[in-house]
Amino acid sequence: MRVPALIWCLLAGLAPPAGAVPSPASVAVLYNSALPESRQLAEFYRDARGIPAENLIGLNLPVAADVSREHYQALIAEPLRREFDRRAWWKRGRDRSGVTVPVLNRIRVLVTMRGVPLRINPTPKPAPVATNPAPTPAAPPKDPLANRDEAAVDSELAMLGIEGLPTEGVLQNKFYRSDKNIGDASMPFLILTARIDAPTHATCVRMIRDAIETEQGGLWGMACVDIANKFPQGDQWLEAIAKASLGAGIPTVVDRFNETLPRNYPMDGTALYFGWYDWNVSGPFLNPRFKLRKGAVAVHLHSFSAQQLGNPNQNWCGPLLQRGAAATIGNVFEPYLHLTHDLAILHQRLLEGRSWVEACWMAMPVTSWQGVVIGDPLYQPFRHLNGTGAIHKEDKEFRALRAAARQWPDSAAERRMQLDKASQRMSSGVLAEAVGLDLLAQGLTAE
């Protein structure tokens, strides 16, 4: 297969994307010492990423996905703070309000391994006393966050170094919308958290391997965006993803029907998937022959997408990982849409070449809440979107599409003409389909 020489020449002149990955020395890895497989996975990840051996922390934790607020404090948070103190990873002092807070922090990323509890259950509330009061005027709507202290373990750990924080409601994420890497952001109080977890130990190992192997040449393939027309904010995020993907030269299938994609919808070569809003895995992901492209980033937005990670057929995060994804995000309890990851920001930060954990936390407005980041935090899926990196045969057509998008960004007609000629010369279905998808995006259905 020959790709036009002009396109390959263009690849060499593209500027590298922004974003430096956090250093391995700034990464700590937490595992459950009560589970041998949890330690094995931690050691595998440590060796794969060159993380210092002394950055592993084993705690004797419950062998359960859920813990109470009391057990979280006693078995996870307090022992972990003692380890940070003992290893001199941070320096803490008191602010003007007398609150203990980190002023220096060597650890910028904390990775929780499969076996570490996932969720903090809500604290039981006393039953209300029965009364028969006189009728009163209707009260204003109750604050949906009031008295809610359930959360993702990982989201709580992000603010581990600050003591005495309220456990109910949410805390502001100061890293939200940041355009600086975490090492340059002057936020020693914040630790970016991510989790390597999936329905099986083997899937976790595969996720790590896929991330490291994929980023050598970059993530290339199709994007699939399933816009379900549920709520304007979420639909706008997905529309922005589709537009940004097409602008980056990524062939993008966009579905705007209210229902999610049907079971036999063709999604071959999908490297990016964003959709909503089914409770459990559905559509093409139920086809036993379906598998995402190696290194794929796949997200299905739903209130309980990460409610559990052990069953490959329930909710979304576990099933997506089991079907080939290397990374995903989700929510462990009801988060409310405006307090979830902003998918448009997440996607844009990834296209800039950011690491997975930084892109996710740049897109999350709050901590001490329901969001969880799953996958190798150091993974840079679009590290080589500029055309650098190892070139694999199966990626060449996608690389050509990226180069064409950069060469003719403001001349869609010229770009399509060049790609159409190339698709005929090369007998390339990938290039031909990309031209058709571009026409659809422009509303040129007849063409």
List keywords for this structure.
447 residues, alpha/beta, 4-stranded parallel β-sheet
**Low-pLDDT sequence parts:** 1-16
Tally of alpha and pi helices: 12
Structural category: alpha/beta
Query: What is the overall silhouette?
Result: globular
Mean pLDDT: 92
The rounded Rg comes to: 23 Å
Order of the strands making up the biggest sheet: 2-1-6-10
Strand content: 15-25%
**Helix content range:** 25-40%
Give the biggest sheet.
4 strands, parallel
Q: What pattern of helices and strands is seen along the backbone? A: HEHEEHEEEEEHEEHEHEEEHEHHEEHHH
Distance between the termini: 27 Å
Q: How many β-strands, per DSSP?
A: 17
Please explain how this structure is put together.
The chain is 31% helix and 15% strand. α1 packs across α10 (396-407), α2 (36-49) packs parallel to α5 and α6 (232-247) packs parallel to α8. The protein has helices at 5-12, 36-49, 69-86, 153-157, 201-217, 232-247, 317-322, 343-351, 356-362, 396-407, 412-426, 429-441, and strands spanning 27-32, 56-59, 66-67, 90-94, 100-105, 109-113, 119-120, 151-152, 171-172, 192-196, 222-226, 252-255, 270-275, 297-300, 328-331, 366-367, 371-374. The strands form 6 sheets. A 4-stranded parallel β-sheet has the order 2-1-6-10, with helices on both faces. Strands 12-11-13-14 form a 4-stranded parallel β-sheet. A 3-stranded mixed β-sheet has the order 3-7-8. The protein is of the alpha/beta class and 447 residues long. The protein contains 12 helices and 17 strands. β1 (27-32), α2 and β2 (56-59) form a beta-alpha-beta unit.
